[in-house]
Amino acid sequence: MPRTVAVLGAGVGGLMTAHRLRGLLSDADRIVLIDRTLTSSLGLSSLWVLRGWRRPEDVQVRIAPSRLPGVELVEHNILAIDPDRRTVTTSALEISYDALVIALGSELDAAATPGLAGALNKGSAHEFYTLAGAERLRRRLEKFDGGRVVVAIAGVPFKCPAAPFEAALLAADLLRSADTPHPTQVDTFTPDPLPMPVAGPAVGEGLAAMLKQYEIGFFPNRVITSIHEHSRQLCFADGQCEEYDVLAVVPRHRPPRVVADLDLSQVGWVPVDARTLTTGLDGIWALGDVTVLTLPNGKPLPKAAVFAEGQAEAVAYGIAHYFGLPAPEPWFDGSGSCYIEIGGHMAAKGEGEFLADSAPAVTLHEPSTEFHDEKRAQETDWLRRWSR
């Protein structure tokens, strides 16, 4: 009897899962990929938009049906997931499933930080996690004539743990190239003790040293409590406030409402088995940014596309086994890498095994043009793979 797999989310994890499933299941089995939009971009491209190396229209793709033959593409808002009835309700229809994959990512929650939503709406603060936000920040920096640029993290977890520090390095590079007429300082503020603390102290200290090398201030253990746009102040839990001329904020992240409504954890993220990505609910898997995957050291796996791509294979194999079909054993190995652009078309690279015994085993490699080229190749391959 034909079976239906519903894949929720058309980001990296959802696309790769649907693609791998199509090669494992029978032609009679139905695979439905559902998302509110089938237009997408890689997160790494947003930072290059910030720097001015890309235009938003150059790095977006409209997922072409020809790239996912045998997969139904449904562009609807997802309103509800019912694990008991095994249904997904969208703005236009209800779909019954035999297996479900939740790959809906995370959302920006500006309202969680007092003052941030209003500051973003009025253009007195900026974010760079969307193409439009990165483009607005670029335009603001290109008109900047001197002062203090602050890149601040409103809360954890957030997508791509290197992104705020990469944004600071690229902003500094842009300002240097623009020959800003008056003195300029770029500073970073984080609630964590080090950049990318999940990767271990050696990596964090290496990134902090890199920021210092490029004269970017690093202020750890600073928890934001409010933003005051009129006085241009960022205030913290220790009672101190810092002034800024340009503010770029990593907003708090939250799971999509339909996922939080499942009430699978106190904070709404989906807990999963580290190796198989099973959720504890019959016939339901989750992967990517929507999940919380606890590492052997007790810290969560970073939210990054590289992990979603690796998890997609484990999920597809797990569903094949669930249906009684031959497939390799599902096993996510936890390996991954990320690139940290420093400007001048150079990038550092962190890579390693995040599910290694006791703690992640991650190495930070020195910046080079080769790493920048590797990152560019990732973007090029992704755009070619999914565009019409």
From TrEMBL:
InterPro entries from the entry?
FAD/NAD-bd_sf, FAD/NAD-binding_dom, SQRD
Domain of life according to the entry: Bacteria
> Region (Disordered) spans which residues?
368-388
Regions crossing the membrane? none
The residues covered by the FAD/NAD(P)-binding domain are: 4-312
- Supply the Pfam families for this chain: Pyr_redox_2
User: Cross-referenced PANTHER family, in alphabetical order?
Assistant: FAD-DEPENDENT PYRIDINE NUCLEOTIDE-DISULPHIDE OXIDOREDUCTASE, PTHR43755
Question: What's the protein here called?
Answer: NAD(P)/FAD-dependent oxidoreductase
Q: Which organism is it from?
A: Actinomadura alba
Q: What is the lineage of its organism?
A: Bacteria, Bacillati, Actinomycetota, Actinomycetes, Streptosporangiales
